[in-house]
Design brief:
Helix 2 runs antiparallel to helix 5. It contains eleven helices and ten strands. The chain folds into two domains: 67 residues, Chemotaxis Receptor Methyltransferase Cher, domain 1, CATH 1.10.155; 193 residues, Vaccinia Virus protein VP39 (Rossmann fold, 3-Layer(aba) Sandwich), CATH 3.40.50.150. Helix 7 links the parallel strand 1 and strand 2. The longest helix is centred in the middle third of the chain and has 19 residues. 32% of the residues are buried.
Length: 280
């Protein structure tokens, strides 16, 4: 089958749509890369042109089923259990003790944490293990985890919470025994997160480019790590502003190590590498 060519017109349509939809800016130098990576999607969907592919992505069915694949094409998504493990050390040594002290003397007894850009669920389930372990020492205090991604397909995988042995390898033996169920028979080679932790995580589709996040509660902690590295400064600034407004007073923001707080840096204090606390 002859591979279709990506015209300048179609590239510009893709570039404008991708920027408007998810904030990623594709300069003309990325045309060859985009063409090569999208060829696989065209073949899989049995489409004979890039125009037909973009028309499909723009359709309601394409928005639900294909948009995440297109975003994967233009970005590099990586997620692991206990990725950047030092962040979870900071949580248990600094952030959570701060909240325990505050929650003990207030009516606010449930810590609210948001995994923004959760992909297939490894980050929020890591949070759940760490929080479950920590709050077991504090009867009367609790936590809830809100996890979002733009891709419905990875969210379905996250809700299923089944991971292969190699994926759960970063989880300690102690945590694997407590929080993961080992598959048997036809499920050998896989683990599933225990029901108690799955019930603690609420998954929802969310696009950062929406005018409003549509979240009806303030968050005490937001994790948004290595998600917006492909955004231009204008988009990063607007997004960090929305994160700041979504945080509760003295809330915490965890970012990727290469991301800077465009637009809100003067309103947050750095307490550790890529960990910030609101001054408000």
């Amino acid at each position: 089958m002859h591979s279709p060519a990506l015209s300048d017109r179609d590239f510009n349509r893709f570039s404008a749509f991708i920027y408007e939809t998810c904030g990623i800016k594709l300069p003309p130098i990325k045309k060859t890369m985009l063409s090569a990576r999208l060829q696989k999607r065209l073949r899989q969907l049995h489409l004979d042109s890039f125009s037909a592919y973009l028309d499909y992505v723009l359709s309601p069915d394409g928005q639900a089923r294909e948009l995440c694949h297109m975003i994967d094409v233009v970005s590099t998504n990586k997620t692991d259990f206990f990725r950047e493990a030092k962040h979870f050390d900071v949580m248990t040594s600094l952030v959570l003790p701060d909240y325990v002290q505050r929650m003990t003397h207030s009516a606010h007894k449930t810590l609210r944490i948001w995994s923004a850009g959760c992909s297939s669920g490894e980050e929020p389930y890591t949070m759940a293990m760490v929080l479950e372990e920590f709050f077991s020492r504090y009867p009367g205090l609790d936590y809830s985890i809100f996890a979002t991604d733009i891709c419905t397909e990875v969210l379905a995988k996250a809700e299923e919470a089944i991971y292969s042995d190699d994926v759960v390898a970063p989880v300690s033996a102690v945590f694997r025994n407590k929080y993961l169920m080992k598959g048997k028979g036809a499920h050998k080679g896989f683990h599933r997160v225990v029901p108690e932790l799955r019930r603690k995580v609420e998954f929802r589709r969310l696009n950062f480019m929406d005018r409003d996040f549509g979240i009806d509660r303030k968050m005490d902690i937001i994790f948004c790590r290595n998600v917006i590295i492909y955004f231009d400064r204008k988009t990063q600034c607007a997004l960090f502003e929305k994160f700041y407004r979504q945080l509760s007073p003295k809330g915490y923001l965890f970012t990727g190590h290469s991301e800077t707080l465009e637009g809100i840096g003067d309103r947050m204090d750095r307490i550790a590498a890529a960990v910030y606390r609101c001054r408000k």
